[in-house]
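Need a sequence for this fold. Nothing fancy.
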């Protein structure tokens, strides 16, 4: 724990987001702060900023799908810190048809310093398939399926 208590963020996105260009990373908009302590989320950009130096467990779980038929498309998701891609954080899902929807998990354990910023990135090799992350409302009586669920928690905070 930090001098100020626990350090964590639980966030999500209520917005379906389609990838606009082939093989170009696009920032995922995380627009809902579902709860946090000592972590800042800019809901207009999806940028997460930490206030304390620590080792952080970062988990991003996007709900992935596509709108258009055609060739197989892959969806990729990774973590970026201070504008730099985190090594070995990329995950890939092949989407063979418009009926394919899945949640994939991207996670890293990374050391962050005070003021560091974290973003979730996504890309595809087939933007014509309208690949992206999807916010879904199954029924009026069920909770929404967010386009992404994002969690960050400090582990072994330094004083």
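Here you go.
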């Amino acid at each position: 724990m930090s001098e100020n208590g626990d350090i964590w963020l639980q966030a999500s996105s209520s917005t379906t987001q389609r990838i606009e260009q082939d093989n170009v990373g696009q920032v995922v908009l995380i627009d809902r702060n579902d709860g946090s302590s000592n972590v800042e989320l800019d809901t207009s950009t999806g940028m997460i900023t930490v206030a304390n130096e620590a080792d952080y467990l970062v988990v991003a779980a996007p709900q992935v799908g596509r709108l258009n038929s055609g060739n197989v498309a892959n969806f990729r998701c990774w973590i970026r810190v201070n504008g730099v891609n985190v090594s070995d954080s990329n995950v890939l899902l092949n989407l063979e048809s418009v009926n394919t929807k899945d949640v994939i998990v991207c996670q890293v354990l990374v050391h962050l310093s005070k003021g560091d910023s974290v973003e979730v990135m996504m890309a595809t090799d087939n933007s014509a398939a309208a690949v992206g992350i999807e916010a879904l409302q199954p029924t009026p009586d069920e909770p929404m399926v967010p386009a992404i669920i994002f969690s960050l928690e400090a582990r072994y905070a330094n004083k």
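For context: DSSP finds no helices and 15 strands in the chain.
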